[in-house]
Automatic annotation (TrEMBL):
Pfam families: LRR_R13L1-DRL21
Species, as recorded: Ensete ventricosum (Abyssinian banana)
Highest taxon of source: Eukaryota
Gene3D superfamilies referenced in this protein's UniProt entry, alphabetically: Ribonuclease Inhibitor
Record protein name field: R13L1/DRL21-like LRR repeat region domain-containing protein
Biological classification of the source: Eukaryota, Viridiplantae, Streptophyta, Embryophyta, Tracheophyta
Domain R13L1/DRL21-like LRR repeat region: 72-119
Amino acid sequence: MKNLVSLRHLTAADQLISGIAEIGRLSCLQRLHVFEVRTQAGYTIRELRDLNELRGSLYVRNLENVESKNKAGATYPSWLKTQWLTDLNIVFLSGCRRWESLPPLAQLPSLKVLWIQGMDATKSIGRELLGPGGEVFRRLEELVLDDMPELREFLGDRRFFPRLRSVVIKDCNKLKTLPPLPSNLTELTVLDHGFWMPYFDDTGTAPVGSVVSSLCVYNCPVLIAGFCVSLKEEDSLSSLQTLSIDDISLLTGLTASKNLACLQNLEIHSCLKIICSTTEQEKAIEDLTFLQTLCFNGCANLRSLPKLRGLRYLKKLIVSNCPQTQSLPKKGLPASLKVLEIASCHPLLKERCGKECGSNWESIRHIPRVEIDGEVIQEEASGN
């Protein structure tokens, strides 16, 4: 195999290809999905040095087997900053825990997805990503920063990511600064104590709310507290259509400042605070005038559903894994509702929604599709 120096295409299972020694001799190879670093000769990281024609994505595993200080030190390998990888679409950097800085990945002109994970020593990200020529990420669409406990700042300007559409920040406890995001950004996800102030200091830079259509915030109490305090009525999340949260206080803060004018989809997961017996919580949901989909999942203290009658555009309601939820709203559900799904809630709720005989049946008989614990108890034919 190693003598086939002109071979361009090699199709086989990843496990089989990973067993080929000295694969670096196949210098014309255009596709290599996985490379597993081993300590044995013929499987070291050096094998990637001459694979200049690789395209698509490459996943490098077992970097813990890179033993040489020169290969596994506080910086990146030289081959990662060259023009050789011009067709690379996806870069996943994981477990490079001694790297203090990142390579100039903007020099990869075809890069669309950049995932950076498990880098303990990196405190700042900035212009080093661009390289000496000042290149920007011309095609990057997705950026993930995951498990970077010392990262404090990501500096730059809006020219960095002209096509960026999705940003995920997870386990970046100390991160407080991001570069301005482009106007075409549509998805923002902040998870597990990721701390990021959502408004920028740059004069003339639009706040994230004016461009993002999907926002997901989980397990970020410090972020939520700061976010709600900083909100003003003029900071309208004018493009936000989907919101997924695990803390009702974020929702109450947003609705109180009239910041969810266009919200269509709301998902509340594993929220212990939501009980929907407080006026503030009920009003927060009632104010979502254009809501079309509402999901309560894993809300252990949710005893009854809030008033929903005023949500005249609501089409789908999902209530799952809410063991204390026993009843539907007393005033019934919106006439616009097309789908009702209930799963793993209090047994009384299932009994009350029983077809024809349940005490809540009259309030849900108008809904074309009703599903309870996986059983469809009502479904109207399409067009009826």
